[in-house]
Amino acid sequence: MDTASPTHYRERLSVPIRWWAQGTMLVASLWLAVIVAVPGAVAWAVTGAAVALMATLFLTYGAALVSVEDGWFRAGRARVELRFVGEVVPLDAEATRLVAGRDADARAYLLLRPYRKKAVKVSLSDPADPTPYWLVSTRRPDALAAALTRAVESAT
User: Fold this and answer.
1) How far apart (Å, rounded) are the C-alpha atoms in residues 155 and 114?
2) Does 154 have pLDDT greater than 50?
3) Separation CA 44–CA 67 (nearest Å)
4) Alpha carbon distance 145, 148 (integer Å)
5) Are the beta carbons of 55 and 19 closer than 8 angstroms?
6) Phi, psi at residue 80, to the nearest 5°?
7) How far apart are CA 92 and CA 135, in angstroms?
8) Which end of the chain is more exposed for a tag (fewer CB within 10 A), N or C?
9) What pLDDT score does 1 carry?
């Protein structure tokens, strides 16, 4: 569940329903190809393994969490203290495409999902960290940017 308050934000970047529908159709096609070639029990075992693999991949890939809580900004496995967060810029789809592509810095931390077109660019001010900014996918870039900005202001 996604939550947002003035200084707290939490969002899971779960895969969209269309991925589940397309994956299900792929597994059904696999089942159809296998059921005519091997005994039924083997076909069902292969199909069951494919369903388990698909679910594991989608759930793992979609488990990325973006949050602003307890003095930390977390994006996937990475986290940074709010005192090191600088400018926060919400990006629309076109700006995200440019910052992730043509205008990208190879040292940046990226948590991008192809099914989330918008993002937030978070500049870092930690002199010990060579990472200039984080680019983080989100459903609601304005809400995340506002929560981050308020949290940084209240932390200082």
Assistant:
1) 32
2) yes
3) 40
4) 5
5) no
6) -145, 140
7) 12
8) N
9) 44
